[in-house]
């Protein structure tokens, strides 16, 4: 294994170790959404009970208001009949009814204020869940892209460097083998060697030939 290959596998091993220690962020996000949806559902049930009580109070107030109006009619009728004593008794009932109405109306206003605050909180929680789901879709695309990039790097790392190194090594071995073979052929080319020796014997000595003309 070459130095480059050893370095690559060392880096890859370190990166894999780090990635293995990290949890899938999308799984954490899914769990967060499930938790929030559970809270939202529980809050809806609790809020529905509170709002239901408010509606009951509202209906009771309407009934008390009608009773008060009826008391007024009865009081006037008693007075018209000259029955002042009966009118006083009915008036006492009306005053008790009005007192109860005012007390209940105060509770109703307070409960209504809390109910509106609860509905606002529920809408905010629902919006938060919606926003997180939107972000999750975006994060999923980014996460998948990162995973794909990681796999591509792993494929490249596992094949290209190793295969390239192996390919170069094979080519180098093949070239050296051919060079050695050619060298061996040259050593065994006796005919060519003999021809060279004969040629050297028959070559004219130019210096000797030149002396003939002196």
Automatic annotation (TrEMBL):
Pfam families: PspA_IM30 (PF04012). The keyword Repressor does not apply. It comes from the Bacteria. Residues 47-74 form a coiled coil. InterPro entries: PspA_VIPP1. Keywords: Coiled coil. PANTHER family: MEMBRANE-ASSOCIATED PROTEIN VIPP1, CHLOROPLASTIC (PTHR31088), PHAGE SHOCK PROTEIN A (PTHR31088:SF6). Belongs to the PspA/Vipp/IM30 family. This is Phage shock protein A. It comes from Clostridium tagluense.
